[in-house]
Amino acid sequence: MEWIFLVIAGFLEITWAVTLKFTEEFTRFWPSIFTGAAMLGSVFFLDLSLRSLPIGTAYAVWTGIGAAGTAIIGMLWLGEPRAIGRMVCIFLIIAGVIGLKLNL
Q1: What is the tens place of the pLDDT at every residue in 72-96?
Q2: Number of domains comprising the chain
Q3: Can you give the residue range of the structural domain that contains 83?
Q4: Exposure class string for 19-48: b at 16+ Cβ within 10 A, else e
Q5: Cα distance between residue 60 and residue 47, in whole Å
Q6: Which mean pLDDT values do the consecutive 10-residue runs of the chain (104 residues) have?
Q7: Which of 2, 16, 31, 55 is the S-S candidate for 49 at Cβ 3.0 to 4.6 Å?
Q8: Do the Cβ atoms of 15 and 38 come closer than 8 Å?
Q9: Which is nearest to 5 in space by CA: 66, 51, 70, 71?
Q10: Maximum Cα interatomic distance, the chain, rounded to a whole number of Å
Q11: What is the pLDDT of residue 75?
């Protein structure tokens, strides 16, 4: 169950990172509320995952999911660069997250 909590935390990490762009420095109410709720939810589910997962592994997976997912969304929907080097690096992050899961 802890891995499920960690994946939820990672997806909430992606959510707040992407929606942060739409808060306009926290001057827009609803995007700011949504971003704050996603931040709190992300940390909450990370905490739940720490019941049995080592902090180093959980934190690396959490940030990996957040970094890779946010970069992918940026490329697909926010017009960010799709350079091959960037995609290779994102693949390496994902490979690292999978490696951590398989070696725990």
Answers
A1: 999 999 999 999 999 999 999 999 9
A2: 1
A3: 2-102
A4: bbeebeeeeeeebbebbeebbebbeebbeb
A5: 14
A6: 97 97 96 98 98 96 97 96 96 96 87
A7: 2
A8: yes
A9: 51
A10: 44
A11: 97
| Token pair listed for 92 | 């390496």
Supply the DSSP symbol for 83.
-
- The CA-based angle 67-69-70, given to 5 degrees, is 65
Contact 71, 55 (CB under 8 A): no
Q: Quick one: which of 70, 50, 55, 88 has its CA closest to 10? A: 70
Residue carrying the six token digits 């957040």: 66
CA 62 vs. chain centroid, Å, equals 6
Token couple for 71: 């970069």
Amino acid identity of residue 29, one-letter, is F
Which amino acid belongs to residue 61?
V
* pLDDT attached to residue 104: 76
